[in-house]
Amino acid sequence: MWLLYQFPLCPFSRKIRLQMGEKGIAYDLVREDPWAASDMFFNLNPAGRTPVLANEEKSIVIADSRAIGEYFEETVERAPMIMGTAAQRAEIRRLTALFDENFFADVTEPLLSERMKKRLILRQPPDSKRLRDAMRMAHGHLDYLDWLIDTRPWLAGPTMSMADLAAAAQISVADYLGGIDWTGHESARGWYSVFKSRPSFRPLLTERMDVIKPPAHYAQVDG
Fold this sequence. Notes:
Elements: E1 2-6, H1 11-23, E2 27-31, H2 39-44, E3 52-55, E4 60-63, H3 65-75, H4 86-122, H5 128-151, H6 162-176, H7 186-196, H8 202-206
Helix pairs in contact: 1-3, 1-6, 4-5, 4-6, 5-7
């Protein structure tokens, strides 16, 4: 059995959970809070970041969501998430990096810092300017997502790919933290609603963080 060391609001863990769900890979979750990671977890990943994938029977430990994602693409044929021609695969990887890096830095990380870390760890009020900046940046990313959906069936092309998983994972965390305003982004909202209805996504919608509660629309498929 695979063990996935993760944190409920870690978007990179969510991306891997979506991939494993789409591929039908069974796993158990092990929670590792980023502010209280165990010594055992640091032995698995000296960087101290989630996700980490482990299988004792196979003597496998893989850290980093991209490494984990590529591992499953190479070892599990079902529901490929990086597929097509070399150019198509490059586009999938480009967009995956865009959401993993740019969206995270612009939107998800500031929201996590201001609405989770400051509340649960530092016991400080959030920086309202940083929150406004994150939500403003979110609109820019959603504009681009609107364009992608208006010109393609899925973000990177004709079929769902790792790019969709990465985008949905980041947006789901930002949405949980109240950082997404869908006004003027009907294409992106429609794509996300379709994604929320998939069986792989449903476990994410039921999870809740201690103290921090999501907006009422968070768990609604059409919300």
